[in-house]
Write a structure and sequence with these properties.
The structure holds two protein chains of two kinds.
Chain A (H helix, E strand, L loop, with lengths): L5 E12 L2 E12 L3 E5 L6 H9 L6 E6 L2 E2 L4 H7 E4 L11 H11 L4 H14 L15 H13 L5 E5 L7 H16 L4 E5 L2 H7 L2 E6 L2 E6 L1 H8 L6 H9 L5 H8 L1
Parallel strand pairs in A: 3-8, 3-9, 6-7, 7-8
Antiparallel strand pairs in A: 1-2, 1-4, 4-5, 9-10
Chain B lengths: L2 H19 L13 H27 L2 H33 L20 H15 L2 H16 L3 H34 L9 H19 L2 H7 L17 H11 L2 H29 L28 H16 L1 H7 L1 H14 L11 H28 L5 H6 L4 H31 L3 H28 L1 E2 L8 E2 L1 H29 L9 H32 L4
Helix pairs in contact in B: 1-4, 2-5, 3-5, 3-6, 3-7, 3-9, 4-6, 4-10, 5-6, 6-7, 6-9, 6-10, 7-12, 7-13, 9-10, 11-12, 11-16, 13-14, 14-16, 14-17, 14-18, 16-17, 16-19, 17-18, 17-19, 18-19
The chains are: A alpha/beta, B mainly alpha.
């Protein structure tokens, strides 16, 4: 049973791969219009959490509800309302960018007469115009990322799940996506956003959850995290390093530079 | 030319091939090291030598005429071996190497390393020859003991050396085609837009068909025994020069040995030169921007929707159809019916394996076989790869609002489109070729279509339950073990049972005055096909639901 008013609610979520506990009994919740940043080093469980939210992975225990729909019971229903950008988009490289977006439009049952007007602004804004009829196999990493972002936004999702979505984007496109996220959030779309780049999280997110070894170590606004870490006035990087216990790198730097 | 670099490249490519082909073994397992191929070859050699030894024991109790006959057969076999080895290596190479994605084949690295093109070509050709040397080892093994026993030991040694040259020739041929096909893949960049995909498809399939047909061991085995009587035209075919040299050794014809043995080596050298030229000129080190169309985007509802498919199913079918014509690694599969048709046609036209009977029924059987065989092989193959060919991009399907049943239906429509299309085309072609009567044609078409449907369902079952989404260094689409079970254990037996009514008709009609009840065929085949199809489609449904329940790739 999900809590009314919450766009996303995950309770006691756990997932193991063999002996490795990828996600360990975490709770997450988001309200409409909120941007929640999921921070953590590589292997901390961010991607696994996002995949469980989307219904791609089955949790070993716990429940997830997206807009009141239980993921385990109706994964297709959840996918219908979520826009997801994976960490490394695996696209159909034998299709052109436009064909891929047309394919995605079919899958989300976007009416034929609306497609062109939905796709065009993305092609223009993300500077894909002129490349839309080329095979994706010839695209750069950044162009593939732009196509994946467009594909996630085309059906006007009610919730966005972006896993390192700014990877490989040029500064202009990254700024555009960040501004777009803010705009969508201001219109009520909740966004779950994972990143390694703490400056992005600081600039974009209303709340931040710090994951480490599959657990959430801290969750709240950046001001609340500073309080938790006992570092008022410090940067998010300092807070992150303090909370994850990976703060003192001077010894490693000395060793590497010697 | 740098021998150390050639060796390093050959070892790296052999490792790349081995480690992609074998799973489940530990990091230090013997089967992950190139030496394992040598061990396998040695076992094959010794096993085949054991067969040869058994043969020799029969010789020892046989009559002198039996021994003379055996000597003649052995000499013929030794002559044939150098000619068929390149064909075997080439066909294996085409099937397994041409599918290799260039980004995973360790072939691009050399573009930015200080390596000469000739070093790479030689290293790669050696690696391919080594990878597919099993037939070579078995052929040498089975002949060695009889050759020694019959006093042909030195002749065998000469044959072994010339076969080794042939093995290398096979590897170099694969290199040439690989570079040529890559050229076709990238040649249209920015130059030709509309129709480029179709031209590429036609060119690649033509290359595959021409090489596979003319290096087909079945055809070579049929014709080589005749060539000793006529140097012309066979003496003009370089692939036969090794065989002419072996024949010269056996018959003591010094001139033939002196001419053809060096010619065979020179031919290998010439092929290396061509391979280096082709690669230097045409190899594209980076993915190229290929523009497919320049027309304005005009989204529309597909005609497939009128067949009752959902929007998602339609989208998957259209996507797979585009992939079938654009993905180089899939083209070898889609060239299969063409290769089979050409081979069967040559068999019929050249009258391989016997003549036509007075009643013409043998000819009927010859045409019936491809009409049933093509839908069997093609149907089961296209359906079985339909899941694995998603490769890593299968992740897209996991993230989209599409149900497993919709995915399976789309895959079934895709496979049926090709299998039934091939059945229709092949049946019309062979009916025209043989002058088959209308009733016989309709019977064959019906049974062929039944075979196509049931084999598609079998393929879907295996494809959904044992898919292989890995891409490096070459995609396999279905777990190789289960692929073998599918083809040998299920597809062929099902074909056999379904074909019984047709073959029974062919046999009965050889009896003068006997006729076969027509209605029987129209009833038996569809009923049997429906039962088989339902069983395997249900299995495919369960397997797809299980597959799509969680992303485990």
């Amino acid at each position: 049973m999900s809590t009314p008013g919450l766009a996303l609610e995950a309770k006691s979520l756990s997932k193991s791969f063999g002996q490795i506990k990828a996600v360990n009994n975490i709770d997450l919740s988001m309200s409409g219009g909120e941007i929640l940043g999921l921070l953590g080093p590589n292997g901390s469980g961010k991607t696994t959490t996002m995949k469980m939210i989307l219904g791609i992975l089955k949790p070993d225990s716990g429940t997830i509800a997206v807009e009141g729909i239980e993921v385990q019971k109706d994964p297709v229903g959840v996918k219908r309302i979520v826009g997801y950008v994976p960490e490394t988009p695996q696209l159909y490289e034998f299709l052109t960018g436009l064909e891929y977006l047309d394919f995605i439009s079919d899958m989300y049952e976007i009416p034929v007469e609306e497609r062109k007007e939905r796709i065009s602004p993305f092609l223009d804004g993300l500077e894909l115009k002129g490349h839309e009829n080329e095979l994706i196999s010839g695209y750069s990493q950044g162009m593939k990322q732009k196509i994946a972002l467009t594909a996630a936004l085309l059906h006007r999702p009610r919730i966005l799940v972006l896993d390192e979505a700014l990877n490989g984007l040029d500064p202009r496109s990254a700024k555009l996506v960040k501004d777009l996220c803010k705009r969508l959030a201001s219109e009520g779309t909740p966004i779950l956003f994972s990143t390694h780049v703490l400056e992005i999280a600081e600039a974009l997110c209303d709340k931040v959850a710090i994951m480490y070894h599959g657990s959430i170590l801290a969750n709240g606004t950046i001001a609340e995290l500073r309080q938790t870490a006992g570092l008022p006035g410090s940067t998010l990087e300092e807070v992150f390093l303090k909370i994850t216990g990976t703060g003192d790198l001077s010894e490693i730097v000395r060793e590497l530079s010697s | 030319m740098n021998l150390r670099k050639i060796y390093a490249i050959a070892v790296a490519l052999a490792k790349s091939q081995l480690r992609a082909s074998r799973s489940g073994s530990s990091r230090f397992s013997l089967f992950r090291r190139p030496i394992s191929l040598f061990v396998i070859d040695a076992i094959l050699f010794l096993g085949a030598a054991g067969v040869g030894y058994v043969f020799v024991t029969f010789l020892s109790v046989g009559s002198p005429s039996f021994t003379a006959q055996a000597t003649s057969y052995l000499e013929q076999a030794m002559v044939v071996i150098p000619a068929i080895i390149p064909g075997i290596v080439f066909i294996a190479g085409i099937l397994f190497e041409l599918n290799t994605s260039s980004k995973f084949s360790a072939s691009d690295t050399v573009n930015w390393l200080p390596v000469e093109q000739s070093d790479y070509v030689l290293g790669s050709a050696i690696s391919v020859s080594y990878d597919y040397s099993a037939a070579f080892a078995a052929a040498l093994g089975v002949t060695v003991i009889p050759a020694i026993d019959l006093g042909l030991g030195l002749d065998w040694a000469g044959m072994a050396i010339l076969s080794l040259v042939s093995l290398f020739i096979g590897g170099v041929l694969v290199e040439i085609v690989r570079a040529a096909v890559n050229r076709v893949s990238s040649a249209f960049s920015g130059r030709i837009r509309r129709g480029a995909g179709l031209i590429r498809l036609v060119v690649i399939v033509s290359i595959i068909v021409v090489f596979e047909v003319f290096l087909n061991p079945n055809l070579l085995l049929t014709h080589i025994p005749n060539f000793s009587s006529s140097l012309f035209p066979y003496g003009l075919i370089p692939l036969f020069w090794g065989s002419f040299a072996v024949e010269g050794i056996i018959k003591g014809q010094i001139l033939a040995v002196v001419v053809f043995a060096p010619l065979s080596v020179l031919f290998a050298g010439a092929l290396v030169w061509v391979a280096v030229r082709v690669r230097s000129r045409y190899w594209s080190p980076v993915p190229t921007a290929v523009t497919v169309t320049s027309s304005e985007y005009a989204p529309r509802v597909s005609f497939l929707a009128r067949l009752g498919l959902t929007q998602a199913e339609t989208a998957i079918v259209r996507k797979d159809l585009k992939g079938a014509t654009r993905r180089r690694e899939l083209l070898t599969f889609f060239s299969v019916p063409i290769v089979l048709v050409v081979i069967f046609t040559l068999d019929i036209v050249l009258d391989v394996g016997g003549g036509t009977s007075a009643g013409g029924s043998t000819f009927d059987a010859l045409t019936d076989i491809p009409i049933l065989f093509v839908p069997c092989i093609f149907g089961v193959m296209v359906a079985s790869i339909s899941f694995g060919q998603e490769s890593k991009a299968v992740m897209v399907l996991y993230t989209l609002p599409v149900s497993p049943k919709e995915i399976l239906r789309a895959k079934a429509v895709f496979a049926l489109f090709f299998a039934l299309g091939a059945t229709l085309a092949v049946s019309i072609y062979f009916a025209l070729l043989s002058g088959m009567g209308t009733t016989t044609y309709l019977e064959d078409l019906l049974v062929g279509a039944c075979v196509a449907v049931e084999e598609v369902c079998i393929g879907l079952g295996f494809g959904a339950s044992h898919p292989d989404f890995q891409e490096r260094p070459r995609p396999r689409y279905v777990d190789p073990f289960w692929q073998l079970v599918m083809i040998i254990g299920v597809a062929f037996p099902v074909l056999g049972v379904t074909a019984i009514p047709v073959l029974a008709r062919d046999i009965i009609e050889t009896i003068p005055g006997a006729s076969f009840p027509i209605g029987y065929l129209f009833l038996a085949a569809p009923l049997f096909a429906a039962a088989i199809s339902i069983i395997f489609y249900r299995w495919a449904t369960r397997s797809t639901e299980k597959l799509m329940a969680e992303y485990r790739i």
